[in-house]
Amino acid sequence: MLLHRSGLVRVRTRIQNRLDAIAKDEGLLANRHWSQQRRGQIEDLSLSGWEAARRRDLPALLDELDGRIAPLDKAVLQAARENVDACRLMTHPGVGPIVALAYVLVIGDWRRFPRGKQVGSYLGLIPEEKSSGDKRRLGKITKQGNGMVRWLLVEAASNAQRHDADWHRQYVRLSMSKHHGVAKVAIAHKLAVRLYWMLRSGEDYPQVRERGLHAGQSVCPIGAVSGR
């Protein structure tokens, strides 16, 4: 179910990007996130020929995909509500039913991992190490393990860092010195490790954070599905 939904969402994102490209070609400023307002702006553009046909067909495909993804969102939410571990992880800011359920199903029994470091390695969120003589260099992340969960964690990282001052500082620093993609991966690694400790300790987010910097919920949230 999660894999099927992930595939449809990726197709939807590609279509949104194509529509966004049409908007940019017509001089509309780029938007960071897709929205109905953005779609309305594109539909109001004065186009002709094949560009008009393209603009007509792509929103129709979006509507078709939205109709197919909606019941999957409901099914994921229901499955997450029925899973104690997923409910616990959903108390963490930025972690919705999709991220929580995917993490729980892929990690399986947390006892397989002696430490959080092994979880980061299992999910391919640690950098490759290249050593030569007495020099040690870190390269790109290994990208081993489950690509869907890794992608979900990276997407969730942007929201999660807003609720943690230390994470936010690291995110801003890496975004400025390297690239925002590097920053998101770094926070995704921290998020993966923290979720592991929540499972291992059997505690909700406020308890794991100790002194609770964020007043998370101790019961399974009923809010909208978050996390792509």
Secondary structure: elements and pairs:
Layout: H1 2-25, H2 36-43, H3 49-81, H4 84-89, H5 97-107, H6 116-122, E1 127-132, E2 135-141, H7 147-160, H8 165-177, H9 180-201, H10 205-208
Antiparallel strand pairs: 1-2
Task: Describe the protein in words.
The protein has 228 residues and is mostly helical. It has two domains: 79 residues; 125 residues, no CATH class. The chain contains ten helices and two strands; from the N terminus they run H-H-H-H-H-H-E-E-H-H-H-H. Strands 1-2 form a two-stranded antiparallel sheet. A hairpin with a 2-residue loop joins strand 1 and strand 2. It is globular and about 60 Å long. The two termini are 14 Å apart.
In short:
This protein is mainly alpha-helical.
Please report the distance between the alpha carbons of the first and last residues: 14 Å
Mean pLDDT over all positions:
85
Percent of residues in helices: 55-70%
The secondary-structure element order is: HHHHHHEEHHHH
Going across the biggest sheet, name each strand in turn.
1-2
Oligomer: single chain
* DSSP helical segment count: 10
Strand content: 5-15%
The coarse silhouette is globular
Computed over alpha carbons, the radius of gyration is 20 Å
Secondary structure category = mainly alpha
**Most strands sheet:** 2 strands, antiparallel
Number of domains: 2
Poorly predicted ranges: 211-219, 221-228
